[in-house]
Design a protein that fits this description.
The chain is mainly α. The protein has helices at 25-38, 54-63.
Length: 74
């Protein structure tokens, strides 16, 4: 079991502009899921995206994105 917390672009230590509910959540989430699956410690098992409030929106748009390695399993 591994856990990872991702911040959104433009918030806290993350560079770039923050445009909530508009721009980068789906593609950034998909890139994170693909990165996790490429790590030796992930074991290729299921990936779960979860959050509350704005983080729930980010998890949902990641999950509803196009099929592929960038989509969580749950």
């Amino acid at each position: 079991f591994a856990a990872l917390a991702q911040d959104v672009r433009g918030r806290h230590g993350s560079p770039g502009p923050w445009h909530p509910y508009r721009d980068h959540e789906e593609s950034d989430g998909a890139a994170t899921v693909a990165w996790v699956r490429d790590q030796a410690w992930s074991g290729g098992g299921p990936v779960v995206a979860v959050g509350s409030s704005y983080a729930a929106h980010c998890a949902l748009v990641t999950a509803l994105g196009p099929p592929g390695d960038g989509r969580p399993d749950a």
